[in-house]
UniProtKB/TrEMBL annotation:
Compositional bias segments (type: Low complexity): 12-25
Name of this chain's protein: Coiled-coil domain-containing protein 106
Biased composition (Basic residues): 32-43
Sequence segments annotated as region (Disordered): 1-49
Length: 158
């Protein structure tokens, strides 16, 4: 601001010395205000919009996206950050997605009946406990990096 005042003072003295002094513009006494650009919220496209996961299909979609990123980054937590999904959320619902990936017509996986995903994940865990061959196939796929290397988590019931 001091420099601006000095420039204004020097320009006033120069204009007073000049023979072509004109009083046509009174607004020249004040320097023009600078316009500031307004900041706009950045809206992402389809990928930027994060929706709440409510069905097993949504879980599978998130899981596959994170798996694809994991193969590139080699870090589950970094992959989750890139997709703006909490790592614990993936750990809570991973069992659902893994069962859907492995699902064949011979396997009769539990059906989703509109309950919470937490209850459905527990159903899937109970199903895996009764089918050790399916569980061994999942662990084998995790070792081959075909599935995310996440241990299952379950919230305690209140």
């Amino acid at each position: 601001t001091n420099r601006r005042m000095q420039k204004e003072a020097s320009s006033e003295s120069e204009s007073a010395d000049s023979s072509t002094f004109s009083d046509t513009s009174d607004s020249s006494d004040k320097p023009p205000k600078r316009k500031h650009k307004r900041k706009h919220k950045v809206r992402g496209g389809k990928d930027g919009y994060i929706r709440r996961v409510q069905t097993p299909d949504d879980v599978l979609c998130h899981y596959k996206a994170i798996l694809k990123t994991f193969l590139r980054t080699r870090s589950v937590s970094h992959s989750c950050k890139q997709h703006s999904v909490d790592r614990n959320t993936i750990a809570l619902t991973a069992i659902i997605a893994e069962l859907q990936i492995i699902a064949t017509p011979e396997l009769h996986i539990p059906e989703f009946q509109g309950e919470t995903l937490q209850k459905y994940a527990k159903k899937c865990k109970d199903y895996l406990d009764t089918k050790p061959e399916v569980m061994s196939k999942i662990t084998e796929m995790k070792h081959n990096r075909e599935l995310l290397p996440i241990k299952y988590k379950f919230r305690k019931e209140k």
